[in-house]
Amino acid sequence: MSDILVTGADGMLGRAVVRALSGRHAVVGVDIAAFDIRDAAATLDAVRRASPHVIVNCAAYTDVDGAESERELAFEVNADGPGNVALAARDVGALIIHISTDYVFDGESRSPYTEDDTPNPLNVYGESKLAGERAVADSGAEYLTLRTAWLYGHDSPNFVETMLRLAEGGERLRVVDDQEGMPTSAADLATIIADLQSTGVRGVINATNSGSCTWFSFARAILDLSDLSHVHIEPVRTAEFTRPAKRPRRSVLSLARLNESLGWEPRSWQEALADYLTERLTG
Ligand SMILES: NC(=O)c1ccc[n+]([C@@H]2O[C@H](COP(=O)([O-])OP(=O)(O)OC[C@H]3O[C@@H](n4cnc5c(N)ncnc54)[C@H](OP(=O)(O)O)[C@@H]3O)[C@@H](O)[C@H]2O)c1
């Protein structure tokens, strides 16, 4: 018996969510070793046994480039999986909080994307996540789907750690300066989830830290806040990197619905990053 069941609990966001909720609720975190969300019967069985009132689904296939050659697996995990979790949530009368992505959009809009804008994913990962959103919405369960972006969190490979490792290793840094997005701390998103789960807010909501930047500016800030401002970074264009998956050029999300739902505004990505870097040093 648990209040809240977190799937994907060994992942970057899952761990932060378990941490954020644990003081206030009976939280059970599970990952693929406990049950595979692709398996509808196993998912239903595990959810019935846990009997939670909220399920936070952080389980996902998150290899954006890998999805281009593993389309079937990406859809099984990101589309069928959330559908199975949502049907199980409906069965036990639980709310499902599902995590989606800014990559459901094509990034061609000049203004920030609202939740009502029409998705148009550019890559297989984004297509599979959009199919997952739809499976959750069609399940008949009470749901809240949070679209987040550019996540980083402790003890997981992520962009911040990659930049620090390369800079400290004396490698030449070349970072794209023509893709804009919203860097988001997994810990901050977990706090948002912890707050939203007790409200009556339902449907789709964008959920990130405030503000946007390019990968290049993000990298610059990471180094400047880490006493590595002397390290040179070269801004480059996306066209100079050949990668399997296309990325949106400008996936900036409107946070108006989030701010209204929370009654407070998530802090800026710069403040969240500064805290992350401090915590990283102090353990
Ligand atoms: N990371 C980002 O920048 C970003 C941006 C926007 C949205 N998101 C979304 O945010 C959510 C959390 O992402 P994250 O970065 O925390 O991902 P993550 O670190 O890759 O964690 C995902 C977890 O799900 C597990 N998992 C994979 N397949 C599973 C299955 N079939 N059944 C049960 N568990 C399974 C993974 O296990 P294995 O490690 O063993 O595969 C992993 O522990 C995802 O929905 C993702 O799409 C992420």
Kindly describe this structure.
By secondary structure, this protein is α/β, with parallel strands linked by helices. It has a domain at 4-156 and 183-210 and 253-267: NAD(P)-binding Rossmann-like Domain (Rossmann fold, 3-Layer(aba) Sandwich), CATH 3.40.50. It has nine helices and twelve strands. It has helices spanning 12-22, 40-50, 71-92, 124-137, 159-168, 186-196, 215-224, 256-262, 269-282; strands at 4-7, 27-30, 54-57, 95-101, 142-148, 151-152, 173-176, 180-181, 184-185, 203-206, 213-214, 233-236. Strands 2-1-3-4-5-10 form a six-stranded parallel β-sheet, with helices on both faces. Strand 1 (4-7), helix 1 and strand 2 form a beta-alpha-beta unit. Helix 3 packs parallel to helix 4 (124-137). It starts with a strand and ends with a helix. The model has no long low-confidence stretch (mean pLDDT 96). NADP nicotinamide-adenine-dinucleotide phosphate binds at residues 7-8, 10-14, 31-32, 36-38, 58-62, 77, 81, 99, 101, 129, 148-151, 156.
